[in-house]
């Protein structure tokens, strides 16, 4: 049992923490309604055996008049999980602006002789989260309900169809179109925008494919080797698969091992003949060296030769102090930041959430990513008028022991956005129940709240070694409930300290929190006079491992 549970749990990060909030100006807290009657259905959920030692929190507010609809421990700190992303993404949305685009230039260091550049090309990394690797033809950013970055943690992770190297290919074509056909020199990644901070996953100025290699195993016939496909294929990375297909109904258990530098990857294990293709990932250990080689290879595909060896360390010691007077050969422009916010919130993109701190710091001219915290603090205290001491943060994703939120604080932040011109854009950037992102995993059939709950879930789980079960430190949910007439309510639902015997039990807790949101949304519909049948239990939509 131990290995089975461990194989499906992500480690709870225990990196060094930095206290990042201090007292600030406060908005008035809503009047507390102590432990009001939540109704028999919600009460029954909260009283399940899995929650015998757990603590539930709930706060629902009508932001039109500030009326508290339901309240349970609204001013108590809760471990938040990824609902922290509501805070960090809000800060970045305000600091950068929803239309902000990251422009990644490639500069010429040297001189041209005809179509030959004698010198180096320098790609100046700008903290672009996707570098074109998820951009759809309409310019939006693609994602799936379970992102590939969770492939080692949660069953069912899938890939988007876009080419992870699309941005580098576009840059290479621009270099060729500028008249360069040969570089008598090298390609260098300039990663001086910020120093990668000691948080996990660690953001870097240049990110290609979320700094991972995707490894997809597809079953064949029992007794035969599984089919392997992997991306992005960049030298010197090599992947070997020893995964065998076993009989239908057999065990699917795939392990990934990599060399210390990450370039030699081996897959072992088994995959059942009736299993769906199974995705795993392996970390890119040196994003700058990887990006350098990937760009040299892209230049080759575009018809531009480079004399330097394509693999090896990134020669950043050759970079100039500045690029004043240097010619720009190419520039890649990202989608607008609102698309990245939607990606981060919809799939709970941990690397992207941590990167928001670096983006905010760099926007203020700092190379220290933790200088993003004062930006968030100022936004909360002076713009959103939310007391920052209602939150405790030490990363951007919500996964370190310091991180805490109060239901009141999140409700106030959500209400702030409703008072801004970006109200609809921010709300629709959240996962939509039964429709998009992680919200698409629940309430998919026979569910009257489908499309009416816009909210960010949060999870922190780990292995309880003593009792050999899953400890659900936090399962939370915060966002907006929409009545059928369009009226919006803000809400937070969360439970800390639950337990589950296995991964299916964790999914059940996730579904319990979602189902409470469905019940609240249906209550909101009834309150606004819509003639609808009372909520039907959403058990038909519950997640399972089947």
Please, could you describe this protein's structure?
Helix 3 packs across helix 8 (372-384). The strands form five sheets. Strands 3, 4, 5, 6, 13 and 14 form a six-stranded mixed sheet that branches. Strands 2-1-19-18-17 form a five-stranded antiparallel sheet, with helices on both faces. The two termini are 18 Å apart. The chain is of the alpha+beta class and 546 residues long. The chain is built from eleven helices and 19 strands. It folds into three domains: 40-98 and 338-541, Beta-lactamase (3-Layer(aba) Sandwich); 101-147 and 159-201 and 286-334, D-tyrosyl-trna(Tyr) Deacylase, Chain: A, CATH 3.50.80; 209-283, no CATH class. 24% of the residues lie in helices and 25% in strands.
Quickly list its features.
6-stranded mixed β-sheet, Beta-lactamase, 3 domains, 5-stranded antiparallel β-sheet, single chain, 11 helices, 546 residues, D-tyrosyl-trna(Tyr) Deacylase, Chain: A
Number of helices: 11
Question: What is the general shape?
Answer: globular
For the largest beta-sheet, the strand count, sense and barrel status come to:
6 strands, mixed
Q: Mean pLDDT, as a whole number?
A: 91
Portion in beta strands? 15-25%
The CATH superfamily of the largest domain is: DD-peptidase/beta-lactamase superfamily
* Poorly predicted parts: 1-34, 530-541
Number of strands: 19
Rounded to an integer, what's the Rg over CA atoms?
24 Å
Residues in helix, %: 10-25%
Separation of the first and last Cα atoms? 18 Å
Under CATH at level 1, the class of the largest domain stands as Alpha Beta
Helix-strand makeup class: alpha+beta
């Amino acid at each position: 049992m131990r290995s089975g549970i461990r194989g499906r749990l992500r480690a709870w990060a225990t990196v060094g923490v930095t206290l990042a909030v201090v007292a600030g100006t406060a908005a008035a807290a809503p009047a507390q309604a102590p432990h009001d009657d939540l109704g028999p259905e919600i009460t029954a959920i909260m009283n399940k055996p899995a929650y015998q030692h757990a603590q539930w929190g709930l706060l629902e507010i009508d932001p039109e008049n500030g009326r508290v609809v339901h309240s349970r421990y609204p001013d108590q700190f809760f471990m938040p999980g990824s609902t922290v992303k509501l805070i960090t993404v809000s800060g970045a949305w305000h600091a950068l602006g929803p239309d902000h685009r990251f422009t990644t230039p490639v500069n010429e260091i040297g001189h041209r002789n005809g179509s030959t550049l004698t010198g180096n090309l320098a790609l100046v990394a700008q903290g672009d989260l996707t570098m074109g690797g998820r951009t759809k033809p309409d310019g939006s950013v693609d994602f799936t309900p379970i992102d590939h970055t969770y492939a080692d943690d949660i069953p069912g992770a899938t890939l988007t169809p876009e080419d992870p190297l699309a941005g580098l290919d576009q840059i290479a074509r621009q270099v060729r179109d500028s008249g360069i056909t040969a570089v008598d020199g090298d390609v260098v990644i300039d990663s001086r925008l910020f120093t990668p901070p000691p948080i996990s996953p660690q953001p870097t100025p240049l990110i290609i494919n979320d700094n991972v290699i995707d490894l997809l195993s597809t079953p064949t016939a029992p007794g035969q080797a599984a089919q392997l496909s992997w991306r992005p294929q960049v030298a010197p990375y090599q992947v070997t698969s020893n995964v065998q297909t076993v009989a239908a109904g057999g065990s699917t258990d795939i392990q990934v091992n990599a060399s210390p530098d990450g370039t030699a990857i081996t897959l072992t294990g088994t995959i059942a003949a009736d299993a769906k293709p199974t995705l795993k990932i392996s970390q890119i250990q040196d994003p700058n060296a990887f990006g350098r080689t990937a760009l040299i290879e892209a230049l080759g595909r575009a018809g531009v030769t480079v004399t330097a060896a394509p693999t090896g360390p990134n020669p950043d010691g050759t970079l100039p102090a500045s690029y004043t007077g240097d010619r720009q050969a190419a520039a890649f422009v990202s989608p607008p930041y609102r698309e990245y916010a939607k990606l981060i919130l919809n799939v709970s993109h941990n690397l992207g959430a941590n990167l928001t701190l670096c983006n905010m710091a760099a926007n203020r001219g700092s190379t220290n990513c933790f200088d993003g915290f004062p930006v968030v603090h100022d936004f909360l205290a002076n713009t959103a008028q939310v007391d920052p001491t209602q939150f405790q943060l030490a990363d951007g994703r919500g996964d370190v022991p310091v991180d805490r939120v109060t239901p009141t604080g999140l409700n106030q932040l959500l209400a702030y956005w409703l008072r801004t011109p970006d109200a609809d854009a921010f709300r629709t950037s959240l996962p939509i129940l039964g429709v998009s992102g992680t919200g698409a995993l629940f309430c998919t059939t026979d569910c009257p709240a489908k499309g009416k709950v816009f909210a960010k879930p949060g999870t922190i789980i780990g292995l309880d070694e003593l009792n050999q079960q899953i400890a659900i430190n936090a399962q939370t949910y915060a966002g907006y409930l929409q009545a059928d007439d369009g009226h919006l309510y803000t809400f937070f639902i969360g439970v800390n300290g639950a337990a589950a015997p296995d991964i299916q039990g964790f999914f059940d807790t996730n579904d319990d929190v979602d189902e409470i949101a469905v019940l609240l949304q249906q209550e909101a519909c009834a309150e606004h006079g819509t003639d609808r049948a009372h909520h039907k239990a959403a058990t038909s939509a519950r997640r399972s491992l089947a």
